[in-house]
Design a protein that fits this description.
The chain is α/β, with parallel strands linked by helices. The chain has two domains: 6-32 and 280-409, Lyase, Ornithine Decarboxylase, Chain A, domain 1; 35-277, Alanine racemase (TIM Barrel). 29% of the residues lie in helices and 25% in strands. The protein contains twelve helices and 21 strands. The protein has helices at residues 18-25, 34-47, 65-73, 83-91, 108-117, 127-139, 178-187, 208-226, 252-263, 276-279, 312-316, 405-409; strands at 6-7, 10-13, 16-17, 29-33, 53-58, 77-80, 99-101, 121-124, 144-151, 173-174, 191-197, 233-235, 269-272, 283-294, 299-303, 322-324, 334-339, 348-355, 363-366, 388-392, 395-400. Strands 4, 14, 15, 16, 17, 18, 19, 20 and 21 form a nine-stranded mixed beta sheet that branches. An eight-stranded parallel barrel has the order 5-6-7-8-9-11-12-13, surrounded by four helices. α5 packs across α6 (127-139) and α8 packs parallel to α9. The protein is globular and about 70 Å long. The relative contact order is 0.16. Bound molecules: ligand LLP. Ligand LLP binds at residues 58, 61, 79, 102, 162, 164, 199, 202-203, 237-240, 273-277, 312, 316, 372.
């Protein structure tokens, strides 16, 4: 089903014209489809029907309370990478017992917070972290439940900034050292070994790297059991890609078939940490054309959203589709850069893209903006971050208001 259809020549989110939202709350603005979020979550959940599993939504992709609350109501667990994200999950009604905590740089304060909350598992990313975790937990008279995040050294064939399972990356513990590390973990007073974890990268569009990594991880799991460890959870991370342009990523069902053929016999609860594939194509960012400018060398469409609002094109050279909300035929489309107001040449939403002759005030929609959009927004150039809107059928509500200039200077002194 298309959750962002052109209906009567106008782009909608479900049954709501995007122009209505933009006129009422202003631009830029992020708009999410509740129907899309629900359908993407069910796609994942149903793919593993009949197998003990938990979908731990990766909060970093979109951490708005409305999104977390919706996933919670659908039966989601959560993957967090900071004390802040853990707090968001709890405020959205999530249970600490459904939270896994990943990340290479957990602070003492975050470890304490997560232990006190009673999370399901820490995904440990270094030997020093393991020692520190044990010290803190033992000091409280408890044991910290852990998985070791292993780095299987597999090339996920994605953008270098989002490849995490290569041996040159900062993430996880080399798979070759894993047995020693588990042995140490088993001997530490403040540690309880519960599982095994890997995450190899993001925006993967083929199942091959997953298969290679999970094969290695499955073999390790059997060795660990033979070494006497109890491994009840196998966390396979996130990383399933989405269609931004013309990629054809595996569906969750394709992915599940592949996963189960490799690790289905291990008799563990499977955990997954999808982020992008649950939210990416459930959101758009709306922006209006401010000015047009044409030089000898270039045509620019200057819009009111910049790299501070949506950084993926600038940071990764990412491609995100841009549509004029009022549908037009593309016969007059000519190459243009769609750029924002930020004082950086790297501030663009699209480069050399065929863009129709859109005029001042015209509304554009940047598609596939539900993941790593708002969460990566900043206040650079003292720009308030955009509001977020949730659409459900023909109704919609603001789930986070636009920041104000007062919000931006709160607590500062001259
Ligand atoms: N689990 C771990 C341990 C991760 O590091 C990540 C993403 C995920 C799960 C979720 O991966 P997903 O299913 O969303 O691919 N800002 C970048 C993406 C960074 C991904 C970081 N880690 C982007 O905009 O493409």
């Amino acid at each position: 089903m298309d959750f962002f259809p052109f209906t009567n020549g106008e782009l909608h989110a479900e049954g709501v014209p995007l122009e209505t939202i933009a006129s009422e709350v202003g631009t830029p603005v992020y708009v999410y489809s509740q129907g899309a979020l629900t359908s993407f979550f069910r796609g994942w959940y149903d793919a593993f029907q009949g197998v003990p599993h938990r979908i731990c939504y990766s909060v970093k992709a979109n951490s708005s309370l409305a999104v977390l609350g919706l996933f919670r109501s659908l039966g989601s667990a959560f993957d967090v990478v900071s004390g802040g994200e853990l707090e968001r999950v709890l405020r959205a009604g999530g249970k600490a017992g459904d939270v896994v905590f990943s990340g290479v740089g957990k602070t003492d304060a975050e470890i304490n917070q997560a232990l006190d909350a009673g999370i399901l598992m820490f995904n440990v990313e270094s030997e020093e972290e393991l020692e520190r975790l044990s010290e803190i937990a033992a000091g409280k008279g408890v044991r910290a439940p852990i998985s070791v995040r292993v780095n299987p050294d597999v090339d996920p064939q994605t953008h270098p900034y989002i490849s995490t399972g290569l041996k040159t990356s900062k993430f996880g513990i080399a798979i070759a050292r894993a047995r020693e590390v588990y042995q140490r973990a088993g001997a530490l007073p403040g540690i309880e070994v519960r599982g095994l974890d890997a995450h190899i990268g993001s925006q993967l569009t083929s199942t091959t790297p997953f298969r290679d990594a999970f094969q290695k991880v499955g073999e390790l799991l059997e060795q660990l059991r033979a070494d006497g460890h109890t491994i009840r959870h196998l966390d396979l991370g996130g990383g399933l890609g989405i269609t931004y342009k013309n990629e054809v990523p595996p569906t969750p069902a394709d992915y599940a078939r592949e996963v189960l053929s490799v690790v289905g016999h291990l008799g563990v609860e499977l955990l997954f940490e999808p982020g992008r594939s649950l939210v990416g194509n459930a959101g758009v960012m709306l922006t209006r054309v401010l000015f047009r400018k044409e030089t000898e060398a270039k045509r620019f469409v200057i819009v009111d959203a910049g790299m501070n609002d949506l950084i993926r094109p600038s940071l990764y050279g990412a491609y995100q589709e841009i549509h004029a909300v009022k549908q037009r035929d593309d016969v007059d489309a000519r190459p243009a850069d769609v750029v924002g107001p930020i004082c950086e040449s790297g501030d663009f939403l699209a480069k050399d893209r065929p863009v129709p002759d859109v005029g001042r005030g015209e509304l554009l929609a940047v598609m596939s903006a539900g993941a790593y959009g708002f969460v990566m927004a900043s206040n650079y150039n003292t720009r308030p971050r955009p509001p977020e809107v949730m659409v459900d059928g023909t109704t919609w509500r603001v789930v986070r208001p636009r920041e104000t200039l007062d919000d931006l200077v709160r607590g500062e002194v001259v």
